[in-house]
Model the fold of this input.
Amino acid sequence: MRQPVLEARNLSKTFASGAERIAVLSGLSVSLDAGQSLALMGRSGSGKSTLLNLFCGLERPDNGVITLLGERFDYREAGVAGQQEKRWARLRRRRIGVMFQEANLMPALSLLDNVRLRARLAEQPLEQCRTWLERLGIGELAERYPDQVSGGQRQRAALAMVFAMNPDLILADEPTGSLDRRTAEEVTAELFRLQAETGVALVLATHDPELAEQCQVTLDLAHGAPAGPAP
Amino acid sequence: MNLFAALFSHYRRHPLQLAALALMILVATTLWSGVRQLTEQARTSLSQSEQVIAGRQQVVRVDGARLTVSDFVTLRRVGLCVMPWLEVPRQGNVGLVIGVDPLAAACFGGEGGTFGNSQIRLEGEPFVDVSEAARLAEELPDAEPPPSLALIAAGNVTADALPAGYRLADFSRGPDTGELGESFLLNLDALGILALLITALLLRSVYRLGIVQRRDSFALLHRFGVPPAQVDRRLVVELLVLSVLCVLPGLWLGSLLAGLLGQGFGRSLEGLFDAPLYEAPGQWLAPAFTMMAVVLLACLADFLMPGGHRVVARRGKGKLAGGFLLVGLVLALLSPSLLWVFVAVAIVFTGAGLLTPALINRLAERAAGASADPLSRWRYRELAVMARQLALPVVALQFTLAMVLAIQALVTTFEDTFDRWLGQRLEAELYVAVPEGRSGEAAARWLASQPELQTSGAWHRVIRGRGSVSVSGSPPTPVDLFGLSPVSSLVTNWDLLAADDDPWATLTRGEAVLVNEQLARRLELGVGDRIAVEVAGEQLNLPIAGVYADYGRPAGEILISGTLLPEQFQPVFESFSITPGALPLAELIRGLEAAWQVSDITVRDNEEIRSLATGVFDQTFLLTRAMTVLTLALAALALLIMGWVFFTGRNWYFRLLAAWGLSRREVAAQLTRLSVGLTGSVALLALPLGIWLTWVLVHRINPLAFGWSLPMAVYPGFWVELIGLSLLIGLGIALLMGRQLRAGAALPVSASSLTGGER
Done:
């Protein structure tokens, strides 16, 4: 039986707002296989970014179980979070590529050095880094710094960083949210092309229905149930 | 919400920044005003001491005997206008009380000036009624220096009018210390100004950072239709209110600080210049306005010269810094006056201030370029950004570290040298002052006849008085004169700064004179030079056999063989230094009492005197130490706050590292290496500046301010301590930032944003 790359069961997450606690996620379950793409849809504040953070261990759920790349994180028992910190860090370092809406690059490093830094942390060969920039069409900008290139070029560099680490799962939080439509389409096209080429699983948080349609599965956080072709 | 509330909302979100600004204004005011108050008091005291006696003449006896009340009566009976002047040391030998007679001074009235009847206000020290001074003199223990009575002559008293047996002489309270008093005060002024500059620098850095963070709010207000000039005006008002609120309590704290340090400082002033520290009313208005002007200037300099300094900052900073350093170094080496030395120090510090952030930036960039590891490369690049972003607090910390290092080296060197010097001066076990009205002659004869002293002990007699020296026909310079006989083994082990082959032997034979460093420097004297010494009307022409160190008063001193003193020489004071050896103490006391025909003499243990002198020494440097420690604490605090604020701007990038798989501990380690790297670099760069400043203090400022110099010494142990302290500051920054990283998610910033996204 094929094991899913990501499996989450009964995830709950609340945030404190003064004396009150606001539930963002409540009993959410989802599963994703290798090579699959999942779109997280929903309005601002619906919990898309929170769910992505839970999937890479940057935040902890109040309850539930996450199984990621064979590692099980059970939050039903109190006091386990501290022990899981190192395991999550190891997974993020080598197997999960995280991409944000912007500011994915270290401003003090050139685009190439950014890619090399990410590859080095993932213990991947540094020789491929320039090739990744070239594959994304920004090879000639390799020595430039983030503030010397456009927003679209920065997101392409961020893509290069993610793929240079040869991940099993990519978590992308509104990766084209700050770009104009045409540039956003170009970056998205590159993302799906490379995802297909490498067979990596992808979770994409977006509120753009057209972008979500390109994913195999869509999870509308307003309704809480995945829609689309069965995994 | 009005415009003020909108602007001030920044500080509601960042209360720590407001607290830092307020604290810096408060501490800067406290430090500067405290030192200023002491300096002003000292200046008043010195000037009062000088003015009172300037140009005055006194009547003295031709036979050199001490003046008494009967002399005063004699002179007044022949119709001469003279006034008694009785100087009485206060108990504990801190400060002087001067007894004057306002009735007698009435005849000075026509001349105006300080002796005009209306000018002498007997409202406390230093002037009291002569009867009160006489009462205080009676209460003095024997061992205190005896009170001295002088009779000051009015301007109309001429030598011809004096009865037989009297003559006129210049009136002075001690050998002239030239402009050294002013130099001493200039030193203090410089210390205060340096502390003020450092705090102004820190203030500016914190304020500028706040302005950068508020830029988005200003832009938003502009879009809402508020003219930028209106925002600027509100900012000035905001700063004015803040400075008023902090400057006033700062002035109050400053007066407390001055009060706290006043006693030690008073002892220094007294010891150095014979000028007691008089109470002076504290000033409020001028210091308050000055401090507010400094605050406004430090914070709002950008409004005054928009963009100007940035052009300099970006172009040719290295060359400019090099130019400053070169000019400053040459000037420090060659400058003829203390003021120019301070100007040179300011120029060198400016050069170093320009160079340091640029140098750290350059070195970090070079290290990044040479590093194959991307993570190290990132760290070096971040360090370069930090050096640029935190340039002002970094430079302030460097200045403070250099200042602390130099002052610590100076004080420690002085401590060591002074201790050794004092040990040599107090080589004898016992010290006995010749009782009032007795001569040392009989005691000297008795001591010379004691076989135990010749075989197992040692002793000498010191006869202290006044004389003057001149070199090849130059005007005579008044000096303190010490006649020594015999020249015992208790003095022959003194370290001399310069000497001929056998200075003590030639001194013993009465063929040479020894001079103190102060006199040698002032008259540019060296070993072998001949000087004319005038003692009680007789001229001695002697070569200089040696120059001895004399840490303390800037007054000139000479040491001659007691056998050279003429019969008519009237000592101001006489004492014996004795190591009794096998001679029992009781027998020694009995013998001296018999020689002087007194029933009770005071024998002082030199160890007690030594500990007393060491206590005075510690008090002397209390002010300096307090200033440097407070400034260092302030600089450390400022860098801590600035570092924290800087990292707040870079917070996202550390979170990015966590998103890329670095564990919390690894991120914290990166943070620590960065902040410690910065503060460590600052400490390393402060070392050469501090060593240079030590040299300036020892070889340039001290001789110009005090008349003596110290050996140059460096203390690597203290360097290690200072570097350790800097690393602790770095750790503090990392700790604060680590807490912030754990506190919650930060918003990602745009890579092109002005705050936090710089490369």
About this structure: Chain B touches chain A at residues 373-375, 377-378, 381-382, 384-385, 652-653, 656, 658-664, 666, 745, 748-752, 757-759 (CB under 8 Å). The first strand of chain B starts at residue 57 and ends at 61. Residues 56-170 of chain B form one domain. Residues 112-124, 175-179, 306-312, 746-755 of chain B have pLDDT under 50 and may be disordered.
